[in-house]
């Protein structure tokens, strides 16, 4: 039997969906034959996991998801399947594509490698604080800053995220992330943002010691890349 290649058709999608609905998934090579699909088992598996399964999330990666990806990647590196387990509805392929087309793109714009100290410092002092700032600003009217987000994630994810934040970001950002996940806040409104974030107009001195400021003052030139108002946060 000659196997089909290229884009899937609507009819093929329906055949796969109906077969899995009646018989379940797994054993993909035999499933492809039993369903009458002229596709490889691998093609059927990827089509189902990445596009057709009911719990696949659609749309841009949210700021909360961006924060979690950055933090979990700092712990586990390119273990996309492991990272995807902590982002309900997101596939490992989707997270990998996000990292390669967005994160690596911005490292290239800064003329550095993703694993370089320069880029890690940029993420630590600019990217993560502004993601936290945006999450808090968007959730300021709710009693729990990111309750709708944290309720979708298990306790292991929250623990891993808080631990990564402690290791990867400055203390004030770490405290902010921990507060967000636990549903408690220690500051209110604009004061909380000023204490825990880098503002658009420059660097908030509460985040830096003088030595830090001297060492990382060069990052100010990157400010336009990470501007809350001027930058597309759907990396």
Automatic annotation (TrEMBL):
Q: Which residues form a coiled coil?
A: none
Its Gene Ontology molecular function terms?
DNA-binding transcription factor activity; sequence-specific DNA binding
Chief subcellular location equals nucleus
- Which segments constitute the HTH myb-type domain? 1-56, 57-107
Cross-referenced SUPFAM superfamilies: Homeodomain-like
Q: Can you give the residue ranges of the Myb-like domain?
A: 1-52, 53-103
Q: What keyword terms does UniProt attach to this protein?
A: DNA-binding, Nucleus, Repeat, Transcription, Transcription regulation
| Places the protein is found | Nucleus
The family database entries (InterPro entries) matched by this protein are listed as: EOBI/EOBII-like_plant, Homeodomain-like_sf, Myb_dom, SANT/Myb
Gene Ontology CC terms, in alphabetical order: nucleus
Question: What is this protein's name?
Answer: Transcription factor MYB108
């Amino acid at each position: 039997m000659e196997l089909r290649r290229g884009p899937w058709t609507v009819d093929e999608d329906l055949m796969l969906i109906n077969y899995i609905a009646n018989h379940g998934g797994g054993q993909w090579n035999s499933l492809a034959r039993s369903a009458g699909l002229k596709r490889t088992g691998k093609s059927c598996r990827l089509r189902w996991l990445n596009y057709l399964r009911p719990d696949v999330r659609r749309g841009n990666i949210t700021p909360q998801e961006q924060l979690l990806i950055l933090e979990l990647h700092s712990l586990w590196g390119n273990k996309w399947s492991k990272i995807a387990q902590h982002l309900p509805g997101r596939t490992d392929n989707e997270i990998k594509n996000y990292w390669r087309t967005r994160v690596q793109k911005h490292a290239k714009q800064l003329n550095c490698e993703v694993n370089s100290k320069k880029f890690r410092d940029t993420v630590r002092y600019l990217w993560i604080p502004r993601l936290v700032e945006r999450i808090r600003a968007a959730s300021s009217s709710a009693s729990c800053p990111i309750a709708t987000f944290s309720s979708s994630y298990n306790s292991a994810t929250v623990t891993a995220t808080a631990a990564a934040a402690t290791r990867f970001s400055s203390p004030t950002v770490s405290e902010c992330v921990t507060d967000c996940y636990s549903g408690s806040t220690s500051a209110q409104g604009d004061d909380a943002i000023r204490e825990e974030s880098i503002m658009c107009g420059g660097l908030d001195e509460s985040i830096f010691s003088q030595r830090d400021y001297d060492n990382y003052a060069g990052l100010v030139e990157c400010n336009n890349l990470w501007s809350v108002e001027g930058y597309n946060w759907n990396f």
